[in-house]
User: What shape does this take?
Amino acid sequence: MHYDDLHSDFGRRIKLVRIARDMTQEEMAALLSYSSSAISDFEMSKRDPTTKQVRTFAETLGVPFEWLCGWGPDFSYELV
Assistant: This one.
């Protein structure tokens, strides 16, 4: 997998989770202790996540780290 694919997968997948949970960027930002502009930048692949940031997003959002990176099989999750 090319780095650009990982980068765009992360943004696309956090947006999928946010929309599936009917959250605004502001609500997701508050949950993750980021600004809403940072969430927007991640979603639009304007900002590169660090490995630590991906891990924190995965743990906080309750999704597999590998899935958030675009690796491994798809999964389904129930919204909490």
